Amino acid sequence: MLERELYEKYRIYPDAIFHIGSDQIVVAEGESYLIRPTDERMIKKVPEKNAMAQWLISQGDTDVAIFLPPDNRRYTVYIDGADSLIYQVQKPADGQYRYRRSEGAGRRLAEFHNKGFGYTPNRKSSVRETSLTWKQRWERRLDQLEEWYMAKVQDPEKTLFDEDFFLTFPYYLGMSENAIQMMGEIEAAERTSYQTSGYNTICHEQFSENSWLTLDENNESRIKVPSDFTYDHYTRDIAEYLRSTWLDNEISRENAGKKINTFLNEYESVRNLSGTDQKRLFARLMFPIHYFKVIERYYQTLNDKEKIIMEQKALHIFDTSKEYELLLAQLVRRYRSLRRSGLPEWIV
After folding, report:
1. Predicted TM-score (pTM) above 0.70
2. DSSP alpha helix (H) spans, the chain
3. Can you give the pLDDT at residue 99?
């Protein structure tokens, strides 16, 4: 099926196929292609994401995968039961990355953001989406989850997971409300002073250690896939990297803390965070989006196997909620401006 679709739509005949996570890599005649499964929501955003990719390429970023539209007026091809996007991965020139081996993720992310600051969204839908503040998005998310909570409380048939949800929701409700209040104060202060950070740039839907790919273990992860891109405030990427690093079960809390400090030092060697954006970063981390995503997915999916996976992830989040507060405390120790922000007592 894969070989037939690639040949019919692109005249590509694979010499080798391997996997990186849910992506497939196809090697054909010395070129590499990335196949990424997608969904209807993402398909609608393909033009704007490709526009971001083209901007980055125009700014000298040679590590952006290039979207290849099929020859059927669609953005996707149907492969292995899923709509998929096809990208060509550019080969680095000989020795191109040797001098970058010592560069860490923080510095490389800052350089990536610097290339994206001049980009302007060119679609009305994108402008509408980015016009919503984080506070407004969080309020919508919280209202929805609160509706589910009330519905489940009134449901006569309750599972053990439902009971765990009932026990943990008030805690995460409080954390969410604190984050929303903090972000509201930031936005109000900016309106009063007639200033905004003005630091929207090309970011990622959810940036982490694994967002950029590599096809060669001798080179650092460098390949950026346009379907990951979004347009938002630059601290979005920083916050999500810190969150994913702290929640990584493969490393100890001590090592995660050291890794986070190294990342922030690297980033700020290129671009300093203003006091306001330190607060914005903190508020983003305080809003427990990781909790929201797992709970929402658990109650939305009809797949029993996925339900079990989401349940296990949720139970881990429940059990380590106090440990997550240590990440917030680490930021308070690092940034003095946060100590003057009227933080909740449970953080300080």
Report:
1. yes
2. 2-10, 40-43, 46-58, 105-116, 124-131, 134-154, 160-192, 235-246, 253-268, 275-286, 289-300, 304-319, 321-334, 336-339
3. 45
